[in-house]
Specification:
It is a multi-pass membrane protein. By secondary structure, this protein is α+β, with helices and mostly antiparallel strands. It contains 15 helices and 9 strands.
């Protein structure tokens, strides 16, 4: 296969090589013609002079015949030597050498012999025989005419050769140029246009075109390569389009799945009390988005107690195969298949060790669920489990909060009203003994007075507790309850209470918040009832060690020493509450006048365990 591809992608006839050969031929013939022309032209360079020299011999021969030796004897001798010199001139000898293959040498030898043998002796005689010479001049001139004509013909024949050579060279150059142009047009220009058009089609995404360039040239190789590339690109584009379609479908499914999970999470967490109905409402949408068989949901409190709710994606009713409360007869627990032959795939709803139910999908054996279906179902099962777990946890926390609230009320009743009533019970028993002993009236009146004061104190404590438990705040925590208390006392008594609260970053437990609020209420109640004050200052802050400091100050008459005696129920309750906070409380005179109630205690989240050295939360 590799050899076949190599043969297909190889060239045997190169356009570039053939073009170079044609240019070499044209240049070669041009050079050859130029060189031959130069050579022949060089050969003809002396022919014109030789023709002139030969032609002048005729004139000199006639001039010698007309020379009078008597008047100018020296002139005859001079002209005689001139003719001899012309006859033997270098230009004539050179012409004879260039045209040695012709009859010019023989003619020249004949003329020279005629001159030397017949003509010159007549002129050299004393006196010169001019008449005889004149009679023989025509014969010499005829020989000279033949010599000149022969020389001219020889020169013209070489000029003919030059013209023929130039014509042949021009013809060959034109012929080669025509063949080259024709070859370039057929083998280069036309294929290039086709290849360019095909390249443009490929650039526009059209891979249907094919270019056929005959031969084994570079362009035929390029055409085969482009054809092969076009086929491969068409295959790649088709494969890419299929992959893009698949990816688009996968992304669409993923978006729909994510939207489904998001909607499910938002819907479930918006109704944390009972999410089971919301789960059932989502089953039909889950089936449509994931393109599965019927989906059913089975819920239970615990694995031992069995199921309590079952619903399907069609009508939110138990599926036909469900036989609640006989869960042991369920096909899931038997064969895992429905009577119709469909297989039930189970996705457990598990939160830690607790089994909260299962999500079941009916699927045919020949069409198993794909990973893009099982993963969302698993996530949805975890989401359902988390929602159910949160709902159960919320219910458990609500029960614990109710129990804790009842415990707080019981503790408050025990620490205040129960102790006050117990003390009055003792006072009543004492009164009975005094009456049995028939004690004097003063003792009886004192006992009745103490019972009356105790009952009033118990009633006041009961009113305080009712007021405390009825305080309405829109936000949890100590701060809103404290501000509501300040607003209440300011509105009912006209007392101006200024607050300085700096416990925003101090998380207190509910028990600590109740004790702090009750201490502040008791202190404000004492200011209103006993201090005769116009202003009251309340400050709450935490120092660098984490200790909470609460100060209640007023500008009233100040606390009297007899009011701090043992048995004063309000002060005793303040001390008990401070002890419950593991703190201390001091009640005394304010340096600037009035009363100062100062409470300090370490909050629970800053107390260290002596065993582990860690903070108690």
């Amino acid at each position: 296969m590799f050899s076949a591809e190599s043969d297909q992608l190889s060239t045997r006839h190169s356009i570039v090589f053939n073009t170079l050969v044609a240019f070499v031929i044209i240049i070669g013939f041009s050079l050859a013609g130029m060189l031959a022309t130069l050579y022949l032209a060089d050969a003809l360079a002396g022919d014109a002079e030789a023709i002139n020299q030969a032609g002048s011999l005729r004139m000199q021969a006639y001039r010698l015949a007309s020379t009078d030796p008597r008047s100018t004897p020296a002139l005859l001798s001079e002209r005689l030597e001139a003719l001899q010199a012309t006859l033997d001139s270098a230009s004539l000898r050179s012409a004879l050498l260039r045209h040695g293959s012709t009859r010019l040498p023989a003619l020249h030898a004949s003329v020279r012999e005629h001159w030397q043998a017949s003509m010159r002796p007549l002129l050299d005689a004393q006196p010169p025989r001019l008449e005889a010479y004149s009679d023989k001049v025509p014969a010499l001139v005829n020989e000279l005419n033949l010599l000149v004509r022969t020389l001219q013909e020889a020169s013209e024949s070489k000029l003919g050769v030059i013209r023929a050579l130039q014509a042949v060279t021009l013809f060959i150059i034109v012929l080669v140029a025509f063949v080259l142009i024709y070859g370039l047009h057929n083998n280069l220009a036309t294929p290039l246009r086709s290849l360019t058009r095909m390249a443009g089609d490929i650039g526009r995404g059209d891979f249907r075109g094919q270019v056929q360039v005959p031969g084994n040239t570079e362009l035929s190789l390029l055409a085969r390569t482009l054809n092969q590339m076009s086929q491969e690109l068409a295959s790649l584009y088709a494969d890419m389009e299929n992959k893009v379609d698949d990816k688009t479908a996968a992304l669409t499914r993923s978006n729909a799945t994510l939207q489904l999970l998001f909607d499910s999470a938002r819907m479930l967490y918006s109704t944390p009390d009972d999410p089971s109905q919301m789960m059932g409402a989502q089953l039909n949408k889950v089936q449509q988005v994931l393109d599965t068989g019927p989906i059913s949901l089975c819920l239970n409190r615990s694995a031992e107690a069995g199921s309590h709710t079952a619903m399907t994606s069609y009508d939110l009713q138990p599926p036909k195969y469900c036989q609640l409360p006989q869960c042991s007869a369920c096909p899931v627990n038997q064969t895992g298949r429905l009577p119709t032959g469909e297989k039930l795939l189970t996705f457990e709803l598990r939160s830690g060790p607790d089994e909260l139910g299962s999500l079941r999908v009916a699927s045919r054996t020949d069409e198993p669920l794909q990973p893009w279906q099982t993963l969302p179902l698993t996530t949805l099962a975890d989401l359902f489990a988390a929602s159910l777990s949160l709902a159960q946890l919320g219910q458990k926390q609500a029960r614990l909060a109710l129990m804790e609230e009842r415990a707080v009320i019981a503790r408050e009743l025990h620490d205040s009203l129960a102790q006050a009533l117990a003390a009055q019970k003792l006072q009543l028993a004492r009164l009975k003994r005094l009456m049995q002993k028939q004690s004097d009236q003063a003792q009886l009146d004192d006992s009745v007075l103490q019972i009356d004061q105790g009952l009033n104190a118990a009633y006041r404590q009961l009113r305080e507790l009712l007021t405390t438990f009825r305080i309405k705040v829109n936000e949890p925590g100590l701060k809103p309850a404290l501000f509501a208390t300040i607003k209440e006392f300011s509105a009912n008594s006209g007392l101006q209470v200024e607050s300085d609260y700096h416990l925003d970053h101090c998380p207190l437990t509910p028990n600590e918040e109740v004790h702090c609020l009750q201490i502040v209420r008791e202190a404000l109640s004492n200011v209103v009832k006993h201090a005769e004050a116009e202003h009251c200052w309340l400050s709450l802050m935490q120092d660098n060690n984490g200790t909470i400091h609460i100060k209640i100050e007023d500008d009233g008459i100040g606390i009297r020493p007899e009011e701090q005696r043992a048995g004063h129920y309000g002060l005793i309750i303040l001390l008990e509450r401070a002890n419950s906070l593991n703190g201390t409380i001091n009640i005394g005179l304010r340096p600037a006048g009035g009363t100062l109630v100062y409470l300090s205690f370490p909050p629970a989240y800053r107390r260290l365990s002596p065993e582990t050295g860690t903070c108690h939360a």
